[in-house]
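Action item from last meeting closed. Structure (228 res):
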């Protein structure tokens, strides 16, 4: 197996740094970054039928129905020929089972389920500081990863905003949803063997290094290949 064919699921609560780690790891290993939240936000911005359907769920911080997400993810994965990393999916047991079924049907398997561990109190603090660029999607944190110029995106100079669903009451709602529906996925995957964890509360670079060590070990173990 080469890095280009890796299939990775990234797990972690909202605010654990999944987006940042997903971008870093996809760049490093040449994987397609499939982020269901970003895909939905693009649909909402483009006011498509799917966007109109999901926007209310997103504003309230609750999950979009499984069927809708499963259908979108199946379409997206079906269009990819190389490796990928899923960020924000699966989020319920039923989504995980659907993904397993689709993988089995295609004769493939998930190579790694990587969980970013994070204490909930740290999450609330982090998410209050999160700002993102609606134009290019880049994410910042006013405490831990500030932009070079306050309020402006380093990449495209667009204005930085706080996402509607990063506001305090919605963050707490999203965390409750995570505890109820998504946290149990770690136990589901833990029993499968391809499950690994890294400490998501470390500085972002260290989390990436920890994740890369796990992926390199996986690649070396399978084919003597190691990505640098
Ligand atoms: P995220 O950016 O991953 O935190 O996702 C933002 C919002 O999109 C979530 O709060 C949900 O409303 C919706 N969403 C994203 N991924 C999923 C999923 N796998 N299942 C259900 N809803 C999702």
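Sequence:
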């Amino acid at each position: 197996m080469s890095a280009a064919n890796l299939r990775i699921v990234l797990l972690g609560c909202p605010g654990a740094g999944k987006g940042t780690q997903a971008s870093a790891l996809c760049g490093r290993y040449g994987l397609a970054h499939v982020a269901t939240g970003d895909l939905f936000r693009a649909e909402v911005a483009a006011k498509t039928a799917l966007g109109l359907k999901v926007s209310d769920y997103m504003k309230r911080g609750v999950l979009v129905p499984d069927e809708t997400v499963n259908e979108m993810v199946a379409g997206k994965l079906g269009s990819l020929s190389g490796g990928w990393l899923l960020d924000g999916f699966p989020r319920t047991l039923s989504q995980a089972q659907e993904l397993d079924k689709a993988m089995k049907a295609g004769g493939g398997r998930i190579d790694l389920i990587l969980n970013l561990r994070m204490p909930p109190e740290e999450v609330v603090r982090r998410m209050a500081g999160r700002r993102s660029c609606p134009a290019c999607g880049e994410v910042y944190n006013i405490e831990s990863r500030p932009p070079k110029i306050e309020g402006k995106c380093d990449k495209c100079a667009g204005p930085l905003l706080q996402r509607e669903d990063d506001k305090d009451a919605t963050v707490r709602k999203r965390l409750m949803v995570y505890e109820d529906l998504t946290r149990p996925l770690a136990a589901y995957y833990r029993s499968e063997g391809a499950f690994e964890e890294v400490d998501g509360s470390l500085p972002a670079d260290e989390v990436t290094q920890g994740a890369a060590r796990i992926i390199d070990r996986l690649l070396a173990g399978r084919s003597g290949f190691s990505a640098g």
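Note appended to the action item: The first strand starts at residue 7 and ends at 12.
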